[in-house]
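The instructor's notes for this session suggest beginning with a concrete chain rather than abstract definitions. Hand out the sequence below and ask the class to guess, before any prediction is shown, which regions might be ordered.
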Amino acid sequence: MGRILAIDYGNKRVGIAVTDALQLIANPLETVHAKDVLSFLKGYLQREPVDAFVVGMPRNLMGNPTDATQHVVGFVRKLQKEFPATPVHTVDERFTSRMAQQAMLAGGLKKKDRQDKGTVDRVSAAIILQSYLESRTI
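After discussion, reveal the predicted structure:
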């Protein structure tokens, strides 16, 4: 069984999270620059089997697309083109950054670490992935 890899895509930074081999638990993995994300994923897929990608889709409070949505849709197309054999799922990512901040605070991270946007992106990707995992079991 391969892992499931989640992506919190941003124009500057991309947070990446991955499941354990049994696809039960989401763990933050890495933050990479947006221009380097496809090459990072190619390298990762050479080392580890990946069954699916999960990409956070930005929505506003009403559930409508945001300014960032078009960038994520473009990225999803590139991902599907680059890895045609790997399914890509999208998940509503509303409130994930706020939830990431709260999780880091509850986890006892120092203020300096909580302010690191790369850490927030990785934790947000893990929250997106955990949300996807939970939705599969319902």
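Then share the key points. The CA atoms of residues 13 and 34 lie 5 Å apart. DSSP finds five helices and five strands in the chain.
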